[in-house]
């Protein structure tokens, strides 16, 4: 289907990105299952690049991210390699200092580079976009040190543009909320453990089942701080007895943040 309708689909890839991608015959992409890397894979496929996706499953990713990556790859006939990797044996990661993301990205991308080089892919790309600021994301320093390219960022594509191109292309990921890893739910310098990650994951899955989306459940000691978008915050406050009842197995100290988190923009 993609080959037959390639002319139509190329309209969903801006000329700058198309020209950029066509410079490469083969490209490995670090795939998170999210909006940006999904669109990059789609664009590379449409532009005739031999592309393969690499998803690294650590303790920091919920299972639904892997399921989305598998579904997307099958839908667009993209080879997907799943790398299962434990990061909880890395002290620089589990001590959870302010540069945790740098150490985590370095471990993850080294594992992808090892795998993709073995598969014959000499160039690795990630889904960073033009809105991603290096000074705010320590992980981008690791990506730069490992010579990983960022086509979307290099072509100055913003998150909003990527969502709109994704929607025009019919990608199911176009309105998927940004989902930072589970480790971001634990306050800096509080040690990361498997039990904490599983607790947070279970709480967030419960909130999903209640009909909420684009939220965060942050762990502070034994307490939970729940953050919702401006749209969903009034419903969460109205349902606080119901929420506490459903989450009492995880914590008896549950607070809803009065400050709404930034929601999805389309």
Shape descriptor:
globular
Content of β-strand:
5-15%
Sketch the major β-sheet: 4 strands, parallel
Query: How would you classify the helix and strand content by structural class?
Result: alpha/beta
CATH class of the largest domain: Alpha Beta
How many beta strands in the DSSP annotation? 7
Q: How many independent structural domains?
A: 2
- So how many helices? 12
- Under CATH, the topology of the largest domain is which? Rossmann fold
Could you say what the CATH architecture of the largest domain is?
A: 3-Layer(aba) Sandwich
Radius of gyration, CA atoms, in whole angstroms: 19 Å
Strand order of the largest sheet: 3-2-1-4
The CATH superfamily name of the largest domain is HUPs
Fold and architecture overview:
By secondary structure, the chain is α/β, with parallel strands linked by helices. It has helices at residues 6-10, 15-21, 35-46, 63-75, 91-94, 100-118, 139-145, 151-154, 159-169, 194-209, 233-238, 240-247; strands at 26-30, 50-57, 79-84, 124-125, 216-220, 223-227, 254-256. The protein has a four-stranded parallel β-sheet, sandwiched between helices. A three-stranded mixed β-sheet has the order 5-6-7. It is globular. Mean pLDDT is 93; it is low at 1-5.
